[in-house]
Amino acid sequence: MKIKIKDLELEIPILNASGPRCTTEKDLLDLEDSLSGAVVSKSCTLEKREGNKGKRYWDCETLSINSMGLPNLGFEFYGEMSKKVKKSYIISVGGLSLEDNVTILNHFLTLEKKVGIELNLSCPNVIGKGQLAYDFDCLEGYLTEIFQRVNISKFLAFGIKLPPYFELTHYVGVYMKISKFPIDFITCINSVGNGLVIDYEREKPVIEPKNGIGGLGGSIIKPVGLSNVYNFKKLFPKMDIIGCGGIETGKDVFEYFLAGASAVQIGTQFHKEGTGCFKRIYEEFLEIMKSKNYKSLSDIKTIP
Ligand code: SIN
Questions:
Q1: Range scoring the smallest mean pLDDT among 14-23, 47-56, 121-130, 171-180
Q2: For ligand 1, atom 8, which residue shows the shortest CA distance?
Q3: Binning pLDDT at 50, 70 and 90, where does residue 19 land?
Q4: 3-state class (DSSP) for residue 6
Q5: Helices and strands, number each (H, E), in the chain
Q6: pTM value?
Q7: Which one of 14, 60, 86, 99 is most buried, by most CB atoms within 10 A?
Q8: Is the CB of 192 under 6 A from ligand 1?
Q9: Average pLDDT over residues 117-138
């Protein structure tokens, strides 16, 4: 069940989310060997980063919290990996400044293999930095600079990863800022930022950086993810939206398609289950398609 977002071909519409298990060469080659519809890298910065210190990931059945702080091997490593990744490769870019992102993106244009880009505007965990996609005053100027200084149309596809929005007027606010640019896809949602999970027995937060504050994932955030996909699809009927947040089963994938997604990404469940999750979830999804006698994704109609 292939799909295409601009020139980016996805073997199946289920991919890994930039986050867990996509940092090292082994991670990326394991994804290459899996059924994930593409290989999506960890968000990369100009310099290699260790990320935040101490215990920085915790999960239970329905919830995860992380404050990783963008640990990654630096943008050049992810560019080099384009020689080894044979399937479609989406590099997540999370530079710490506009200048860094311009440098990183221009470098990726020089790679022999064409890549897709997901610009991460929504990491909640870098100490001292807010989430750009919540700063409506800066967002438009930032994207203007990116589109002026980088030949974005040369990427297989260019998308932005957004945080969750909770207020209906905010969707319109974001729409007003980003609809001016030829963006090929939106990925929503990143984790629900700045949550706090406390272990009452230890009388401490379950993670250590930022006094325990981190991004929430897992099945409890699925309704927020669905609503963000749905609300953005209403505003951008022609935009490809990659849904993310709380997907554990084929049924969850089907729900994201009903909300308006063209493809989905898996984060917390991939962290738990490893690359086998793509095959299992895809097979569950195909079973649902079969039970409804649907032959292709276009048979799934977005809810009104
Ligand atoms: C992290 O590395 O802190 C998570 C990445 C993200 O939320 O964008």
A1: 121-130
A2: 123
A3: very high
A4: coil
A5: 9, 16
A6: 0.98
A7: 14
A8: no
A9: 94
DSSP characters over 160-222:
EEE----SHHHHHHHHHHHTTS---EEEE---EEEEE-EETTTTEESS-GGGGEEEEESGGGH
Q: How far apart are CA 252 and CA 189, in angstroms?
A: 14
Q: Give the confidence band of 8 by pLDDT, cuts at 50, 70, 90.
A: very high
Under a CB-based contact definition with an 8 Å cutoff, are residues 189 and 256 in contact? no
Verify whether ligand 1 is closer than 6 Å to residue 250 (CB atom).
Answer: no
Three-state DSSP class for residue 78: helix
Of 33-37, 91-95, 137-141, 187-191, where does mean pLDDT reach its minimum?
137-141
Instruction: Please name which of 47, 181, 48, 184 lies closest in space to residue 117, comparing C-alpha atoms.
Output: 184
Residue ID of nearest Cα to ligand 1 atom 2: 70
Active-site residue, from 22, 44, 123, 244:
123
CA distances from 89 to 37, 161, 206, 260, 273 (A): 9, 16, 34, 23, 22
Which of helix, strand or coil describes residue 159?
Answer: strand
Alpha carbon separation from 40 to 79, 93, 266 (Å, rounded): 12, 11, 11
Cα(122) to centroid of ligand 1, in Å? 8
Per the CB < 8 A criterion, the answer to whether 38 and 287 are in contact is no
| Residue 40 Cβ contacting ligand 1 at under 6 Å | no
193 lines ligand 1 (CB under 6 A): no
**Using the 8-state DSSP alphabet, how is residue 5 labeled?**
E
Distance CA 21, CA 165 (A): 26
Closest to 17 measured CA to CA, from 49, 64, 73: 64
3-class secondary-structure state, position 116? strand
Structure tokens at 10: 């996805």
SS3 263: strand
**CA 276–ligand 1 middle distance (angstroms):** 23
Q: Which atom of ligand 1 is nearest to the CA of 126?
A: 3
The verdict on the CB of residue 117 being under 6 Å from ligand 1 is no
